[in-house]
Each structure stands twice: as structure tokens, then as C-alpha cells.
Specification:
Helices cover 57% and strands 13% of the residues. The chain contains 17 helices and ten strands. The longest helix is centred in the last third of the chain and has 52 residues, at 317-368.
Length: 437
């Protein structure tokens, strides 16, 4: 069994393709369950963010699992499998482990080093656990990925320039964010919107200058109660739009929230804001702001494409190398532990078999030697046990040494075959280990 990941991100696909493939929570859950319908897949987890969609599966047959998962992802994106090939990437086994660790550490993010991805990886894990689509293999992998992500941020300054997509977006807006009197409209009330409001408040923006609008007014009101900001009903948002200097949009809506004609009507009615200009920070996927809005006079749009272009920064070169070293080290450790866990049941089964043989031969021998003193009986038992231990010591130690090499699992299989171990005994040890994990 090995890990397979099929995905698309800002590195492999244009934003319009990612928009088509984007998943809300319910769709991600459905996709994970559909992946489990494949005869080659035993576990599944889905990571869906504003710049990536990835399906992780534990698979016993690579080609069959790849075919099934690719078909599901292509179907989700509304494209043929042949078209998907041009925009998707595939990682398997060691490469899949390294990829997830890089993702969790922020090394594969649109905003290099951003820590928001940790919460998204954690959410994928928790959702998979709650839906029972994740078992022991992916659980161990994702747990380790989270630990690596935390370690990278704790030991380096990889996130010092932009710890999240929200902060990167606000940085791109410039000084107007903290200028006196600047008014903000936050469209949406989910995790990203909450982070936007929190970030504005932390940057010193007075809560009364932050307005939140959401289709479900109660969710907007929850942000009001948490941060002391104001809320407006979705239907009345255009009034606040004309008064806002900066609009942060992250609704997760299926279509455009701010269509060109809508924004144009607001501009025609006149802006009542401080700057006389309107800046949209579109952090949604699919995009909330229609492409034509950026062509309107007195309007600028900062979106995920803009942020991707700004993400490279030479100041982080040393931190990047340090995080990469952490990831490489953790990948080696994880794979070694994984190989060790696979060979251990074989070694345990071999030792159990040796113990059974010693017990059987001891009983048979003592049945012929009646009247031996207890001290001599103990010496006979000890002698037979030592002989058995010495016979299996070399192969068991050697297989533990070889397990980290490219043929590790082959050595374990050979050990099982050479000593005619009962497959059920090996499987029983594996199951016990899985239950303890």
C-alpha cells in the first residue's frame, strides 16, 4: 500500500481552471467518498484551498487508483481526462510524502511560507476522520505533516513577510490600509473573512470602519459580536460599496459577486469614500470580482494572480533553504519509520514461531526424560531458547538494517518465505499494531 496524490495548484493550472475545480466543504467530502468507491483505494483525503485541489489516497494498485482519481478530478473540473493531464500533477509513494510535507510547510503556497495552509491541512485531516475516509496510513501522514509545518514556522522566519493570503493582499493594497478614515467592506463571513477582520483590527483599524456583509446575516453578526465591527444585509450592500475604500471579498460563491455592471452603477451614482478610488482584494476561488471590473476608472483589483506574481522574495532565500532541509530530513525519518512498521510484523511472527518450536521441542524432550531435577529442566529450556535466539538473531538484525534500503520490503517478504511463516500470523501482528496506533 502506498500514497498517491493527484492535484492541481497555481503552479500547474491557470486560475480559470482552478475555479472550475474548486470545492467547498461538502463537495470535498463527496469527492473523498467517491474516491473510496475505487477497488484500489482504501483511504482518501481532500485538500481544497484558494489555490489548490488535491486528492490523497492510500492505494494498493497505482495505475488503477490513478485512473479512478484522475477521472473524478477531471469530472469535478468539467474537463476531459486528457485535458486534465495538462494541468494536473501526480506524486506517488516517497514523492507524495515529500509533496505533502512541502505543502504543509508553506513551500508550495502561492504566498511563500504562509501559515494558513496548516489550518487547511488540519481541516482536511479532521474532515477525513469525521467522515471515516481516513485510516491509520493517511492519519499518520497528515499528523506528521502538521508537525513539520509547525516546526518550519517555529525554527525559521519563513512567514515573516506574509503569514497568510489575507496579509499578502492587504500588503499589496499599500498605505491606504492604515490611513485615517479608510473604510473597509468585507464580503463573506467564513474562515477567510474572519481572518481578514482580525488582521485589520490587529493593524489598528477601528472596528467601526469595518463593515461585514454575508448572504446569511447571522454569520455576519457573529463577526460583529467577536470583533465589534458592523454588519449589513446582503441586499443592501451596494450602499456600503459606494462608501468603502477597500473591499475584501472571500465569499466562496459559485458566480461573480461583483459583476462589472454592478460596480459600474455604484461608480455612476458616485463614491462617498475617503480616497475617491475603490480597491478590490479578491481572495475567493472561484473569483468574486468579474474580470471587467479592473478596467473601470478609479477601480483596481488585487486577486490571486496578482499575489502570485508578488510572492517571490529574495529576503527569504536562507529561510527557504532551512525549511527545505527540515522537510528533507523529516521525509527520510517518516519513510524509515514506515518501512520499519511494515517489516516489524514479520520479525515478530518469526520470533513467535521460534518460541512455539522451542516450547514444543522442550515438552517432547522432557516427556522422555522423567525425573529430572527442576534446576536441570530449567537449564534444558534455557539452552533450547538460546539456540533458537542465536539462529534467528542474524536474519532479524539484518532485515532491520536493510529495511531502509530500496529493497527493504523484499527482504521482509523473503524472510517470511524462507521460514514459511503463516501469513495470518504476520497479518495479526499488523492488525494489533494498527489498533494501537
Amino acid at each position: 500500500m502506498s500514497v498517491l496524490v493527484v492535484g492541481m495548484s497555481h503552479r500547474s493550472a491557470p486560475i480559470d481552471v482552478l475555479e472550475r475545480a474548486s470545492l467547498d466543504t461538502d463537495a470535498a467530502v463527496k469527492l473523498a467518498h467517491r474516491a473510496l468507491e475505487s477497488a484500489s483505494v482504501t483511504e482518501a483525503a481532500v485538500i481544497s484551498t484558494c489555490n489548490r485541489v488535491e486528492v490523497y489516497v492510500e492505494a494498493d494498485r497505482f495505475h488503477n487508483a490513478l485512473e479512478d482519481v484522475s477521472h473524478l478530478l477531471a469530472e469535478q473540473a468539467g474537463m476531459g481526462r486528457e485535458d486534465l493531464v495538462h494541468h494536473a500533477y501526480v506524486h506517488y509513494d516517497d514523492s507524495a510524502v515529500a509533496h505533502l510535507f512541502s505543502v504543509a510547510s508553506g513551500m508550495d503556497s502561492m504566498i511563500l511560507g504562509e501559515s494558513q495552509i496548516l489550518g487547511q491541512v488540519r481541516q482536511a485531516l479532521h474532515t477525513g476522520q469525521a467522515e471515516s475516509t481516513i485510516g491509520s496510513a493517511l492519519n499518520a501522514l497528515f499528523q506528521q505533516a502538521l508537525r513539520i509545518g509547525k516546526r518550519g514556522h517555529a525554527e525559521t522566519g519563513i512567514d515573516r513577510l506574509a503569514p497568510s493570503t489575507v496579509t499578502a493582499g492587504l500588503d499589496a493594497v499599500g498605505p491606504v490600509v492604515t490611513a485615517p478614515g479608510t473604510r473597509f467592506l468585507v464580503a463573506g463571513a467564513g474562515t477567510m473573512a474572519s481572518l481578514a477582520v482580525r488582521t485589520l483590527v490587529e493593524r489598528g483599524v477601528a472596528p467601526h470602519r469595518i463593515m461585514v456583509a454575508n448572504r446569511t446575516f447571522q454569520r455576519a453578526y457573529e463577526l460583529v459580536a467577536t470583533f465589534g465591527v458592523s454588519a449589513v444585509r446582503w441586499e443592501a450592500m451596494d450602499v456600503e460599496l459606494s462608501a468603502a475604500d477597500v473591499v475584501i471579498s472571500c465569499t466562496g460563491a459559485a458566480g461573480s459577486v461583483f459583476a462589472t455592471d454592478r460596480v459600474s452603477r455604484v461608480l455612476d451614482a458616485g463614491l462617498s469614500n475617503v480616497t475617491g478610488e475603490l480597491v478590490f482584494v479578491d481572495l475567493a476561488l472561484p473569483r468574486d470580482v468579474e474580470a471587467g471590473v479592473s478596467e473601470l476608472e478609479s477601480v483596481s483589483v488585487i486577486d490571486l494572480v496578482t499575489l502570485a506574481a508578488r510572492s517571490e522574495n529574495a529576503e527569504l532565500a536562507a529561510d527557504v533553504q532551512q525549511v527545505r532541509a527540515i522537510v528533507d530530513d523529516e521525509v527520510r525519518s517518516f519513510l524509515a519509520a514506515k518501512s520499519q512498521s511494515r517489516v516489524t510484523p514479520t520479525v515478530v511472527a518469526l520470533r513467535s514461531m521460534a518460541t512455539e518450536v522451542v516450547e514444543a521441542e522442550t515438552s517432547r524432550l522432557l516427556g522422555r526424560l522423567h525425573g529430572l531435577p527442576d534446576e536441570q529442566v530449567d537449564q534444558v529450556r534455557l539452552a533450547l531458547k538460546r539456540v533458537a535466539d542465536k539462529l534467528i538473531h542474524a536474519p532479524t538484525v539484518r532485515v532491520q538494517q536493510l529495511v531502509d534500503g530500496p529493497g527493504g520490503l523484499t527482504y521482509a517478504d523473503a524472510l517470511s518465505d524462507l521460514f514459511a511463516l503463516d501469513p495470518a500470523a504476520v497479518q495479526a501482528v499488523t492488525q494489533v499494531k494498527g489498533e494501537k496506533a
